[in-house]
Structures are given as structure tokens and as C-alpha cells.
Write a structure and sequence with these properties.
signal, alpha+beta, 5-stranded antiparallel sheet, 532 residues, binds 2-acetamido-2-deoxy-beta-D-glucopyranose, 20% strand, single chain, 19 strands, binds flavin-adenine dinucleotide
């Protein structure tokens, strides 16, 4: 009998199961469920589903019991929907919400979805912006609020973190041990989306991105089998999970490498008016190019147009991993006249909360991304074009337009080569890379088309300019991309390899067809964008 029992597998040496065939052609979902302790025949509503192709409703509550399942009309269901950051994600109405306690529950959800063909989505911090990215309209939305353990290994080198954790919880927990991990810069972001998509951190120049610092993943595969993917077991799956998004499995535990981190570090913002923009652009470029000189430093510049005053502002966010007030690498930035300066020594968690305050929940939101070679003219161009397009939509109710400029530095790209490299398809030879995350917040659905068009305009003009200047880099960063952008398609040499990993671990395309939200292996989440 082919019982894909997780128990059996965990007793076998990795070499025995890591053969060419992970899921046999005659894989039997009903039997796999039985191995998880779920007898489909004993659940009346489910019994007939294996034969029927479409589901009238997800009968999953019968398996999990009421405590782990919320359905429409329950207040806990509403609370789950309200938890999403953007209102577009709140527009998706799942048939039910499942709150697993453990990886086996997640495995059962995947198998029930296969049996019933009911689509599903999983949510960690809920900060992906577009509808359906982490919630399944009419399907099953899995949330991890009951999976929030953070456990340190005895030698304190690895923090085992379940997917319900936000970076604030993670940093505050590890701070007690004078440790940190490479993770998000905003407190309310989840570990799940940020890490599987890449993960830019304050510590990226020293250690690489979040995905580069995952020692191993506990992951639920398409056949419900739970494996530990690391550089030495299921290494191809491990590679794919580092930047390949939700296409290969659901991660139920992130085993992150820790590093020593004192109680305080340096961080904060210096804000500039337009008279300081040329100097700010110089400082941005110089720090981006020279980051190897002191990889403890981190930066980004966000530009925004204030709707009430019409004033253009550039905000330089500066961090330094140690509690050093005037690190010499920031001297150029320091010399630029700022109308406000919040830089100080404080905790990592504090700085992430400051950024959370400027990204409140409950608005319409979109983000878009593009990359090029780092070049002063390109940065200047982004300033000019962004302000021009912002001005065209500045009358939109509740508008907060922004473009955040970053550098994927050579040290970051070098760190990405660790552990066999990640899936992003970029290398030190491409660097430094200029990366933008264009983001807009607004109030009303009625303004969606105008806002989307303005964002699309910036991206289109950016690509055209990069081409004109011979500065092209096609990389699209998943965590900053819109639903109209083909992220995986931008991964260059990684694309075919990712598809072959999926073919092996998910031959029936469960994570493509039954979990359709977010960035899939074949094209953008929404094809044929009306905004060109
Ligand atoms: C205010 C704000 C600040 C940000 N700051 C940063 C930053 O500093 N650095 C950076 O790199 N990015 C940043 N981002 C982008 C951010 O990384 C992405 O939006 C990311 O997807 C959010 O992760 P989440 O877990 O909160 O999102 P979710 O919406 O919960 O998930 C996003 C996607 O990841 C998938 N996913 C979630 N958990 C799992 C899991 N356990 N296994 C498999 N797939 C999973 C979901 O299915 C979904 O498709 C920021 C975004 C916002 C809105
Ligand atoms: C799967 O297994 C069940 C239980 O053993 C059996 O009744 C069913 O016919 C099998 N289905 C297929 C498609 O083989
Ligand atoms: C599953 O449930 C059916 C119906 O209750 C029962 O006949 C069958 O023996 C059960 N199978 C197992 C393996 O427990
Ligand atoms: C800066 O903005 C002000 C209005 O806020 C404008 O009058 C001035 O011309 C701008 N200066 C530059 C250098 O762009
Ligand atoms: C840091 O530099 C600022 C000026 O940029 C100065 O006012 C301050 O005293 C310096 N602090 C330290 C600790 O050197
Ligand atoms: C982030 O900000 C929101 C307000 O928009 C707040 O409700 C939430 O508690 C904050 N989260 C964290 C982890 O700081
Ligand atoms: C863009 O990046 C900055 C820095 O990570 C972050 O503060 C901002 O929230 C991001 N916006 C989006 C929508 O990802």
C-alpha cells in the first residue's frame, strides 16, 4: 500500500524518499487522508465528493470541528477578514476560514482541497495587497493564528518559527536572548509572505535577504507529505522555497539562523524638501555603491507628494546594526539639510513599529515594482516621473502616493549565493541593482482605475527609460509586485528549474490550480492588464 504517512517518511533516511518520483501517478487522496486520521467515508458530506468534480460548499468543518473553523456570519470570521491590511483583500469572501493547530491539519486541508477541488489560500501577516493574494474568494482561507510558536535551539543558533508570527513578535522574543534574525522592517508583516518571496531587511548587506538565512523549512507538499527541506534534504525544494513564493508547498515552520544583536541599534529618518533632492540622490547612490565599506548600514529613500500641501518630500530611512550614532558611512546623508530627523538609538522592534505607524490598515492599496542597473540618471528619472504621475491623481480621495527606492547591493547579491543560491535569478554580476516599490493608498473603489493607470504609467516609463539608457534589469521583486506583473517569469535562469521542481513535488499542480492567488509559475496573477 502506498500510504504517504508523514510518520513513515520521517523514519526513513532522506535518500530513500528523495527519488525522482515524489508523488506516484496512482496517488490516492482518500488514502492519504486516512493516514492523517481522516476517514472520508465516515464524513457523510465528504463521502460523495471524490466522485463529484465540483463542490457546492466546503464540508471541512465536519473534519476539523467548530473551534478551528469560522464561517460567514460568525464574528470570528469577520475578525479574520478585518485583519487583512488592504481592503481589496477584505473584498474576498472565503467560504470558510480554517485555523490549523499543527502541520498535519494543514496537510489535511490540502488533501481535502484536492478531494473536493475547493480552492484555498494561506495567510501569514496578510500584507499582500491585491484581492485573492492570501484569501480564497469562495474557498478555504487558512490562517495561522494558532501556530505562533517561536523556539530556540539549545545552541541558540536556530530559531524555529511558525507561520503565524509577525516580525514584531519574532524580534521581541529573540531580543531577550540578545539575538536577531534577518527579517522584515515593518512590525506587522508576517514571516510567511516576506520570507518565501525574498525578504529585504535592515541586515541585508551583512547577511543577505530573509530567504538566504533560512536553515531549513518544514513544508507541507501537494501530496500532504510533510518534509524538512534543507541544503542536504529535499535540496531542490529548499532552493525553490527561497524566493519561489507559495508555488511549492505551505511552510509550517521556518528554521531561521540567528545572529548576536545587542539591545539597541541605530535607526530613523531624515526628511528632505526638494532643494535637497539632488544631494539625497547622490548620497543614495554613493551608499548603494559603497555598501561593502560598512555592511552594517542600510538605507532606502521614499518619495511622496503631500496631497494637502502639494509639497514633495524625500524620506531617507537609515539603519545601522550596532548602537552607533554617527557612523561615518552616513556622513554624506548627515550633511544634507533635513527638515526633520528622527534618527536615534533604539530597539529593532521599535524601528519596525515606527514604520508600521506609517502603513496603517484598512485602505485600498496597490504596489508595483521595477528594476534597472543602479544609475544616477535612472534615480533622477524616477523622482521626476513619480512626482509627475502623483500630481495627476493627487485629487483622489485619501491619496497617499509613494515610491520607495532601494539598492540591491553587491554585498546582498554575494550573500544570496550562500547555500547553493536562492531562486531569484539575480547574481553579483548584475549589481548593484536599483529597485523601486511604487505604492499608493486611497479610499474609494471608484478611483481604482485612475490610480492603477498612474502606477502602470510610472512602470512603463521606467522600463522605457532603462532601455534607452542601456540600464535594463528585468528582475521583479515578488513582495513589491502588482497582480499584473509576471514575477516568476522575470527570474531568468531560474524559471525552468522552478518549473521542474514543481513538476516533481506537485505533479498535479495543486499549488497552481487549487491555490490560484499570488504569483504562479505561468504568468501574472491577472493576465491581460487593462493598464498598459
Ligand atoms: C507596510 C509594508 C511593509 C513592507 N516591508 C517590507 C520589507 O521591509 N521588506 C520586504 O522584503 N518586504 C516588505 N513588504 C512586502 C511584504 O514582504 C509582502 O507584502 C509580503 O507578501 C507580506 O507577507 P505577509 O506574510 O504579511 O503576507 P500574506 O498576505 O499573509 O502572504 C503573502 C503571500 O505569501 C504566501 N504565504 C504566506 N505564508 C505562507 C507560508 N507559511 N507558506 C507558503 N506561502 C505563504 C501567501 O499565500 C500569500 O500568497 C512590505 C509590505 C507592506 C505592505
Ligand atoms: C482510493 O482509495 C480508496 C480507499 O482505499 C478506494 O475506495 C478508492 O477506490 C481509491 N480511489 C482511486 C481513484 O483509486
Ligand atoms: C471508515 O468509515 C467507514 C464508514 O463509517 C467504515 O466502514 C470504515 O471501516 C472506516 N475505515 C477505516 C479505515 O477506519
Ligand atoms: C521646490 O518646491 C517649491 C514648492 O514647494 C517650488 O516653488 C520650487 O520651485 C521647487 N524647487 C525646486 C528646486 O524644484
Ligand atoms: C552626531 O552628529 C551630529 C551632527 O550631524 C552632532 O550634532 C552630534 O553631536 C553627533 N553625535 C555624536 C554622538 O557624535
Ligand atoms: C500595526 O499598525 C496597526 C494599525 O494600522 C495596528 O493595529 C497594529 O497593532 C500594529 N501592529 C504591530 C505589530 O505593531
Ligand atoms: C516599500 O518598501 C518600504 C521599505 O521596505 C516599506 O516601508 C513600504 O511599506 C513598502 N511598501 C510596500 C507596499 O511594499
Amino acid at each position: 500500500m502506498r500510504i504517504p504517512s508523514t510518520v513513515l517518511l520521517s523514519l526513513m533516511p532522506a535518500g530513500i524518499v528523495a527519488q525522482d518520483v515524489f508523488e506516484p501517478a496512482d496517488f490516492n487522496v482518500t488514502e492519504a487522508l486516512l493516514a492523517n486520521g481522516v476517514n472520508v467515508s465516515a464524513v457523510p458530506d465528504l463521502a460523495g465528493l471524490a466522485e463529484r468534480s465540483l463542490l457546492s460548499g466546503c464540508s471541512i468543518a465536519l473534519i476539523f470541528g467548530d473551534a478551528k473553523v469560522e464561517t460567514q456570519g460568525e464574528s470570528a470570521y469577520d475578525a479574520t477578514i478585518d485583519y487583512f491590511w488592504s481592503t481589496q483583500q477584505r473584498d474576498a469572501k472565503p467560504y470558510c476560514v480554517i485555523k490549523p493547530d499543527q502541520a498535519t491539519d494543514v496537510s489535511t486541508v490540502v488533501l481535502v482541497s484536492r478531494l473536493t477541488q475547493c480552492p484555498f489560500a494561506v495567510r501569514s501577516g496578510g500584507h499582500a495587497a491585491f484581492k485573492g493574494a492570501s484569501s480564497a474568494d469562495g474557498g478555504i482561507t487558512v490562517t495561522f493564528e494558532n501556530m505562533r510558536d517561536i523556539t530556540l535551539s539549545t545552541d541558540k543558533k536556530i530559531a524555529a518559527i511558525q507561520p503565524g508570527n509577525l516580525w514584531y513578535d519574532i524580534y521581541t522574543n529573540l531580543q531577550q536572548h540578545n539575538l536577531a534574525v534577518v527579517g522584515g522592517r515593518v512590525s506587522a508583516i508576517g514571516i510567511g509572505g516576506l520570507t518565501t518571496g525574498g525578504g529585504i531587511s535592515y541586515f541585508a548587506n551583512q547577511h543577505g535577504w530573509a530567504c538566504d538565512n533560512v536553515a531549513s523549512f518544514e513544508v507541507v507538499t501537494a501530496s500532504g507529505i510533510i518534509v524538512n527541506a534543507s541544503p542536504t534534504s529535499y535540496s531542490e525544494l529548499y532552493w525553490a522555497l527561497r524566493g519561489g513564493g507559495n508555488n511549492f508547498g505551505i511552510v509550517t515552520k521556518f528554521n531561521l539562523e540567528t545572529f548576536a544583536h545587542g539591545p539597541q541599534m541605530f535607526g530613523g529618518q531624515r526628511r528632505f524638501f526638494n532643494t535637497s533632492f539632488p544631494a539625497a540622490i547622490d548620497a543614495f547612490i554613493n551608499l548603494g555603491v559603497n555598501s561593502a565599506g560598512d555592511p552594517k548600514a542600510a538605507q532606502f529613500i521614499a518619495i511622496t507628494l503631500n496631497a494637502a500641501s502639494g509639497i514633495k518630500v524625500a524620506i531617507a530611512e537609515l539603519e545601522y546594526a550596532d548602537p552607533v550614532l554617527n557612523a561615518s558611512i552616513f556622513l554624506e546623508y548627515r550633511a544634507i539639510p533635513a527638515f526633520s530627523d528622527t534618527t536615534q538609538l533604539n530597539t529593532l522592534a521599535y524601528f519596525t513599529q515606527q514604520l508600521n505607524n506609517s502603513n496603517p490598515k484598512g485602505y485600498r492599496e496597490t504596489f508595483w515594482t521595477a528594476s534597472s542597473k543602479l544609475d544616477r540618471e535612472m534615480v533622477q528619472f524616477v523622482f521626476d516621473v513619480s512626482f509627475e504621475e502623483f500630481a495627476n491623481i493627487i485629487d483622489v480621495q485619501g491619496i497617499v502616493p509613494a515610491n520607495t527606492l532601494q539598492v540591491i547591493t553587491i554585498p546582498q547579491l554575494e550573500q544570496m549565493q550562500k547555500k547553493g543560491g536562492n531562486a531569484l535569478g539575480i547574481s553579483p554580476a548584475d549589481g548593484p541593482i536599483f529597485l523601486i516599490n511604487l505604492s499608493t493608498r486611497w479610499d474609494l473603489v471608484a478611483d481604482d482605475a485612475r490610480v492603477m493607470q498612474a502606477n502602470a504609467n510610472v512602470i512603463r516609463r521606467f522600463h522605457k527609460e532603462a532601455k534607452r539608457r542601456n540600464m535594463v534589469n528585468d528582475y521583479l521583486y515578488m513582495n513589491y509586485a502588482s497582480q499584473y506583473q509576471d514575477v516568476i517569469g522575470s527570474y531568468g535562469g531560474s524559471v525552468e528549474r522552478l518549473k521542474s521542481v514543481a513538476k516533481k513535488y506537485d505533479p498535479t499542480e495543486v499549488y497552481q490550480r487549487l491555490q490560484p492567488g499570488y504569483f504562479k509559475l505561468h504568468g501574472a496573477p491577472v493576465e491581460n492588464s487593462p493598464y498598459v
